[in-house]
Write the structure tokens for this entry.
Amino acid sequence: MRKKVDFLVIGSGIAGLSYALKVGDYGTVCIVSKTKADETSTRLAQGGIAAVMYTPDTYEKHIQDTLIAGDNLCNEKIVRMAITESTNRIKELIDWGTNFDKTKSGKFDLGKEGGHSEKRVLHHKDNTGYEIERALLDRARKHPNIEIFENHFTIDLITQHHLGDEINRRSKNITCYGAYVLNPETNEICTVISRITLVATGGAGNVYATTTNPAIASGDGIAMAYRAKCQIENMEFIQFHPTSLYNPGEKPSFLITEALRGFGAVLKTIDDKEFMQKYDKRESLAPRDIVARAIDNEMKLRGDDHVFLDCRHLDSNELIQHFPNIYAKCLSIGVDMTKEMIPVVPGAHYICGGIKVNENGMTSVKNLYASGECSSTGLHGANRLASNSLLESLVFSHRASKISIMKFKSINFQENIPEWDTEGTVLNEEMVLITQSLKELQSIMTNYVGIVRSNLRLRRALKRLAIIYKETEELYQRSVLTTRICELRNLINVAFLVIKMAMARKESMGLHYSIDYPRMEEIKEKITDGINQGN
Ligand code: FAD
Ligand code: SIN
């Protein structure tokens, strides 16, 4: 089966949909979503979307907060650009039908989260992402030029490699011609030929055992782009959200939004004692890397399985009104958060790195764009500021759409693309092989490449990963393709990139923390301690 479209969009979260809605006014669009179109990280977003709306907030304050959180690795030009465009992108989102909460005076009710010096997070109760996904998807479904392929899995991007040409990573002339897309129900693989392709496949949280990400987050887009010889960067910066609900066995882990700490909730150890003052003067509202490491440290020191988030001192009516879903979720596991503390643990939440793009979302491969969590724009640096990712998706999808609209008519469809080669694939793999390898992979990443790393742990992770890689490649070559084997292969690819980039970084910075490379402030602290002790 073959299909031709002007714009192929892989992903139906905020990045894919907002791009599709714009380019759809100019050409034909095919959106591919591997499950139901609304099964995305976007839909799960709770806290909201950061943007400068009113004084006393200013663009400069938001810029500085983003740069500080990013620990000197942000691209300042990109930060300035994205943040000064924030207000317009929010207005557009509202025009598309998104509702944000307002105060009685009619102004937006802005929330505050870790690392933000002002209240600037627009939200819709505690289910902002659900509201955004609803508005964008409603509009996309009604658009005459947009077709949505739900439950279709993109296997690989098509480049010269599929035409039989040898290409290497340094080649400047790699071009994307579309993608091979599997319909798992019929086992048919469709060759989708496009003038322009946007990868908007979201994150890769499932590379870890505990994650807030939905099951779709298996790093497919990053792995596909890597196989297409695209530049990938900053994969070592994995953000662990400090507070996912401690409820062993539940997947994904339910998020307890940072906005709750912005509302006044306080972190405590299980003996009801506050501890964040030992780690940062911003206490429970310090940036995420610091809070997640502090929790990890307290749990290890005390041998506890979780810490607590305490809301008992807050006004119960207001608490329930602002966080109705969290209240209901906690009640469902027997915790009344107005009277009892909520058990929480850090969970893998967001990948700061990914497919390297420029200020217009263009990748190093021609006619291939990326936006959203799978991309690396330079906005987040070594640690993303809370609620900056929905914003990033809107800004870069908007910019990518502008360039795409200008260029697409001058790009010809590539005609001589072969069908997907299924020769030699006879095996219907045993599911247990895949599930077991996935568990092993998640355990390697959780134990050796988690919040705190070391050279020894990373070396061990790479060795263990090599075994699973080899076994999975053999299986993949012989198997009839399924979503499960492709996802496993992609997750292994992502894990490899995270480990290799973590090994290459010989310093602790932002979300990459290695005990072999203490941070400058720790070295200074040790020297001061030494002097005070007369050494
Ligand atoms: P997603 O929304 O994840 O969409 C990915 C899409 O790609 C899906 O449609 C999927 O089906 C498709 N896809 C993937 N692989 C394939 C494939 N092989 N073939 C076909 N389709 C494929 N950020 C904020 O700024 N504020 C918040 O309050 C916030 N809260 C969050 C809460 C939770 C629980 C989580 C998990 C994340 C949160 N984030 C938040 C992060 C933010 O939600 C995500 O970074 C953002 O939504 C990513 O959007 P996206 O469009 O890039 O990807
Ligand atoms: C949250 O609500 O705490 C998540 C916000 C984010 O990940 O940006």
Remarks:
- The first strand starts at residue 2 and ends at 10.
- Residues 245-346 form a domain with the Flavocytochrome C3; Chain A, domain 1 fold (CATH 3.90.700.10).
- The longest helix spans residues 455-478.
